[in-house]
Amino acid sequence: MKTPFLSYIPFLKALTLLLVAFFASTSAFGRDDNIANVYARGSQTLNGKWRVIVDPYENGFYNHRLQPYDATEPAYAGYFLDRTVTDRTALQEYDFDTAQMLTVPGDWNSQDDKLFYYEGSVWYRRTFDFDATEAQSRQFLHFGAVNYEAHVYLNGRKLGKHVGGFTPFQFEVTDRLQDGQNSLVLMVNNERHKDAVPTLNTDWWNYGGITRDVLLLETPETFVSDFNVTLDSTGEFIEITTQLEGSQLSQEITVEIPELSLSKSVEANAEGYAELRLPTPPDLQRWSPQSPKLYEVVVSSESDRTEDRIGFRTIEVDGRNILLNGEPIFLRGISIHEENPFRGGRAFGVEDAQLLLGWAKELGCNFARLAHYPHSEHMVRVADEMGILLWEEIPVYWTISWENEETLANARSQLKTLVNRDRNRASVIIWSMANETPISEARTMFLKRLVDDTRELDPTRLISAAMEVHSEPGKGDHKIVNDPFGAYTDILSFNQYVGWYDGLPEKIDRVTWEIGDEKPVIISEFGAGALQGKRGDALTRFSEDFQADLYSRTVEMLERIPGISGTTPWVLVDFRSPRRPLAGVQDGWNRKGLIGDNGVRKQAFYVLQDYYEKKKEKANKAKSESEDAP
Ligand code: GCU
């Protein structure tokens, strides 16, 4: 018997609601690939004071039946409607105009003591004016990062949602902007979840909020949405790819490097894609820590133009050596968390980057590990300017849900966004897939997927991860590095805490290392906790003396490790961690910094500085001897 048509109605209604909900919850206006080079685009900053409402019960998102208000359009309620009370009889129990304010960019934890430990939802609202008469053809909202999940609304309507606390995302708002005042509202939630990336437990503070720049970008109708400019692996050619976006795709693309009198034009294909190859001019100055030369590169089409400052260098491995511009290099590094100790909150701007990388330079570094998640674009651009090579990673940290497809998709998306954002940065030489993840088949296959993605996205850089070290039972003095994931990486890296979590510093003197593959080795962490100003003998935990002694012994041990090509001790400066409660010593800070949260250098700072000075002299001597050799 045929089902009468009317019986379909409830099903169709449910389907419509589902579709609307689906489009509402994923990024209807979200972009898979972010527009590149945002700071060179015409834009209006939306940084500054935002009104906020702390909403632990998500009362502004769900009705009392826990149904999301934004599941239907137009919504009948929800804080994202940003309604103002006009009539005294009106019942409204929120009002952004009278709500407290927080600064964006910035985490909420360090701006309001009541929110120091807060994990939950906070609503942010910013109004801004838009002058349609003056505007270019298209507009996009750009968020540098929002930790962890963001639901974004413009003028009461949902733009989409983003998951991941350390990578940029964008929404096109050309058809959603109003001439005059606009209301931008976000519900930001930083709750930790087992299947998230990172997962539930980390050793850093779970800062919540709109933690990086917010921009309203403007572009022509058809514009250069992405480009990549790099030396090929031989260094003989400059390889360029460009991507147009818009309706006029088959335009002529021109790439110029004025300082090198280089210019080349080609026709983009029907998809707006173009590839160019230029022979490397003999007078091109390679980018290196000693001379971080950046060239202005202009990419233009008939309707658009964008310029960037780009350095040219090659990076490769040769047996146990890492070669920068064809020369072996020892990576004198330090690990850095994205935190400004003086503010006791997330770092986000150029000044923060100059502070942290300035300390690394003072230490004698030519390399830094940006742990354990993508840092801001400012950090990477300042490293380009200052001449500090970088290791970047995504927060695949400790015990992630290896068999969860959504977790994998999340990690892949964060990786892709990071690589696309920073692939024009000469300073970035290593993409790291993970940190201290327990060996299992599922884990190694998860990480292998990330390696495959990275090789496809960017075949020009090196891949690594902070891998596992073990000892045979009863043979704790002999360390073995043969993590199966090492088969897929270019560099073998591992964290080791001999003398701190593993014995006392005297053990460092007798430890031996067995490191399988013939690949370069980086010790991606070592260190000890020390409260700045605390003194004692070299066996007094948390004293500067203990830390300094451990450093002295460890730098000597490094020289005994086969294939050692670099290290990034843990860590540049003390940082906040909820895992460090020891009163009077840690007080919520991981004290392994070489600099205290008060900015004062600890003794170990000078031990490492001295070691790096000697490494530098040795490298310069070897270089001048090889240059002098017939
Ligand atoms: C680990 C981890 C760091 C942590 C450090 C420590 O190796 O990678 O995130 O902070 O050890 O224990 O201090």
- Secondary structural class: alpha/beta
The residue ranges in which pLDDT falls below 50 over 5 or more consecutive positions are 1-6, 16-26
How many alpha or pi helices? Answer: 7
- Estimate the helix proportion, in percent: 10-25%
User: How many strands, which pairing sense, and closed or not: the largest β-sheet?
Assistant: 9 strands, parallel
The main sheet orders its strands as 23-35-34-32-30-29-28-27-24
Shape: globular
Any ligands, ions or cofactors bound here, and which?
A: alpha-D-glucopyranuronic acid
Q: How far apart lie the N and C ends?
A: 96 Å
Q: Strand fraction band?
A: 25-35%
Overall strand count: 37
Task: Tell me the radius of gyration.
Answer: 26 Å
Compute the average pLDDT.
94
If you had to describe this structure to a student in words, what would you say it looks like?
The protein has a 9-stranded parallel sheet. A 6-stranded antiparallel sheet has the order 3-2-4-10-7-8. Helix 2 packs across helix 3, helix 4 runs parallel beside helix 5 and helix 6 runs parallel beside helix 7. It contains 7 helices and 37 strands. The radius of gyration is 26 Å and the shape is globular. The chain binds alpha-D-glucopyranuronic acid (GCU).
List its traits.
alpha/beta; nine-stranded parallel beta sheet; 19% helix; 37 strands; single chain; 29% strand; six-stranded antiparallel beta sheet; 630 residues; globular; binds alpha-D-glucopyranuronic acid
